[in-house]
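User: Structure tokens for this complex, please. No commentary.
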Amino acid sequence: MKLYKIFIYTVLILLAVTVAVPVLWVFFASFKENSEFYGDPWTFPKGLYFKNFVDAWTDAHMGDYFLNSVTVTLMAIAMLLILALPCAYALSRFSFKGRTLVKGLMMGGLFINVSYIVVPIFLMLTDLGKLLETSFFLNNHFILALIYASTALPFTVYLLQSYFSTLPAAYEEAAAIDGASPFVTMLRVMLPMARPAVITVILFNFLSFWNEYIIALTFMTKDSSKTLPVGLMNLMKAQNAAAEYGKMYAGLVMVMLPTLILYICVQKKLTHSLAVGGVKG
Amino acid sequence: MKKPRAFIFFCIAPALLLFLVFMVYPTISVFVMSLFKWGGYSTSRAFVGIDNFKALLSDTRFIGSFKNTVILLVLVTAFTLVAALWCANTLTRENIKAKGLFRVIFYIPNILSAVVIAAIFSAIYDPSSGLANSFLSLMGISPVMWLGNRDIVIFSIAIAMIWQATGYYMVMYMSSMAAIPESLYEASDIEGASRSSKFFKITLPLIWTNLRTTLTFFIISSINISFLLVRAMTGGGPDGASEVFLSYMYDQAYTNSSYGYGMAIGVVIFVFSFTLSAIVNLITKREPVEL
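Assistant:
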């Protein structure tokens, strides 16, 4: 059976290397000078060529895009929580007319991928813009964040609602006897108890908002309002045209470093809460 | 206790409204718009019935994108499923050192943006300075045009998709395998069951429900991820050889401004993915195992 053990380790290590090497390679490549890209790709960088990062940050405007991404992601997460928490709470705690319908609709929404409907959303907003004679809806970070938050609702409400229904009702009854209004009960009693689920929701949605590019590409037509992943696409095109390798790798690092740092901090939480997670990507 | 009607209304209404505006309405409008001829520069929309769908039947680029989507669905699902099941089973059942480390590494591709993955693989596939060709030349194989060859490009994209997806499904399967009571395996040990019979007789039947659910995910997410990667990696090229469902729809609607035609493609994608999910669900139906 020793042979089987060796086989297992060989395959596992091989797979781990296949996953890790491309990512590590990007980090090394981001420190290489342009001339180093014409030789053997397996070599380590000769020195730490930080100019790639400076070039990407300022010349390629990745610094501005970074700020845009931070703004949009934070706004979208805030909106999402304000919308989804009360909705999930009411759906799990009260019985009212139309509850099954709302629940069913939201469940159906789990199967609608944003990529399927990005064009109709675009047309809807441009039509509305023409009607109101305004270009308010395009290149607007608030609108982009609103689309992110709205399309993340089914997944988020589903997850929060199933967590709320595991919490005992005794706390709310006690709060009601003390004369607390339902709003105060929700805010002061139930939300603090739902903290683990809220953290999960924030983590998953942070990753998907930060990484999203197709909606951003469609709605952020002006150069100055782009987000990081769209900026990276520009750098990929520039690299093909002008062979500016270093800048592209530095940009790549900028997009993935925040998610990697977050992942290293919370990997247990992410991979363990996946079972409740359901549909993604 | 009196039902707090106003409270419930204000809790549900904002979320429901935005969900209807940004998800339900656009979905319905895909179906409605597919019946209209609507070009970019003219604002006129003429009702043409199912003409858009008839045109699709003789559109070779659409048929090409259909074929590519099916190839990717089959290849990516088959390879990812086997790899993810094997890894999950090995990491759960075998006594392995650094289990946690393997799990952490395998999940990394999942936290990366599709653009990042596209950029990484474009670099790997670069004909002259990429890792893939330099690896081949070590073994004495002449360089391959990974993204430039019409016959190869779709397989290059499949590799990137498998690389991206395996860790996610592995973690999914691991969490349902962890719920299987250890006593079952202990009992089978006494009877001298082999590794493979433990997997096929105990593990697989007990994670079957979860496995069926992931098959639906495979369909929905493969259609989506293939679009995100193709869009950023090849733009559908060379000469439309790597076009997939959603990328062709996006090109027709957003780039080419043939909105009605694009939405007809959207309808086909919806119908295709739902029908396929239903069929897969039906043929994988088993009596649930009671413990």
